[in-house]
Design brief:
homodimer; 213 residues; alpha/beta; Rossmann fold; Guanylate Kinase phosphate binding domain; 5-stranded parallel β-sheet; 4-stranded mixed β-sheet; 8 helices; 9 strands; 42% helix; 19% strand
Chain lengths: 213, 213
């Protein structure tokens, strides 16, 4: 008797969302976490001090710089980066165990983190890049409430362009001219990628059941 | 000024649906053609005689066996097969022109045709395999109205199993235990594949617009 086809075991995937700041990545990521019961963020390792209300092992895994450096040396990270004086890393063991159990992980990272993940676990990675609908709209979103200097805004525009220049290192590109439409597209990509034959590990047993004489 | 992001040029794709007979492929294919304005069947070349009501160049391109054999020799087909005494082929030039113009083509073919298409235009091909929900359900669907002999039914089951044995040569596998749910899944796969960066040829110009200083 084959398994119930609706509950076939599958391998999880690593869903990467990248975009320049101002293209809606944070909103889309938050909605995915709210609406999709099967996707989660991995818990990062960090050297930054714990803030009031944070829980070690839930918000972050808090470690000393020495420990972090040793973890880098022992290749315990899928990707890591140094940001504003602190180190952040994605622990390999946690994600690999989750993938085996069929959990999906959401990564809201830039092109450099994406390249690191892709080099480590290529077949588990789905890379989605969000683009702003136009340069004028991007400038409008990065200008904020008009309290920032022209220099600050120019710096943001430059960083946004630098990120956009890596759009061709992604599997999918979605232009975000409407947040609801963009979210629906991102959901379609995630749904389709879950149906990839290579991720549906339970199919082997299911097909064996169909083939029985 | 970049283009309107909703009308970016893209390259079409070849959407292949395969399944054993009795797994719903014909129903899914018909619904796709009815509901999706961007996908079409290619017009096949055939050596079988024209039937009353058929239009040459619309239903099929009708040719003599000599012409067909010459076309095979000149490698004018993406795939071809000999079925029940007649030859059928998919003309390469027609599909390649359509893909360039952004049209998608639906192929309702078996694993052998799928292999031929994949060898010719690998990056344009999306291969979807439909499976029946259980062996009992497959037998029920292949038994029909109970007017066929046990031998005929056994032959059908054997052919179905032979087709199923090629499930692992596909990009996506969908278990069809409910025709509406199955159709929704097939639509999600098609929508996602259209968003693949490599097919969105218009993005190059669009991003160039975003990058202008």
């Amino acid at each position: 008797m084959p398994d119930d086809p609706d509950t076939l075991q599958r391998r999880g995937l690593m869903f990467i969302l990248s975009s320049p700041s101002g293209a809606g990545k944070t909103t889309i990521a938050r909605r995915l976490l709210e609406h999709d019961g099967e996707i989660r963020m991995s818990v990062s390792v960090t050297t930054r001090p714990m803030r009031p209300g944070e829980v070690d092992g839930k918000d972050y895994i808090f470690v000393s710089q020495d420990t972090f450096d040793r973890m880098v040396e022992e290749e315990q990270f899928l990707e890591w980066a140094h940001v504003f004086g602190h180190s952040y890393g994605t622990p390999k063991a946690q994600v690999k165990a989750g993938l085996r159990e069929g959990h999906d992980f959401l990564f809201d990272i830039d092109w450099q983190g994406t390249q690191q993940l892709y080099q480590k676990l290529e077949t588990d990675v789905v890379r989605v890049f969000l683009l702003p609908p136009s340069i004028d709209e991007l400038r409008r979103r990065l200008t904020g409430r008009g309290t920032d200097s022209a220099d600050v805004i120019a710096g943001r525009m430059e960083r946004a362009r630098a990120e956009i220049s890596h759009w061709d290192g992604y599997d999918y590109v979605v232009v975000n001219d409407d947040i609801d439409a963009c979210f629906a597209k991102v959901e379609q990509i995630l749904a389709a990628e879950r149906m990839r034959r290579a991720r549906q590990t339970g199919l082997i047993g299911f097909v064996r059941g169909l083939m029985k004489p």
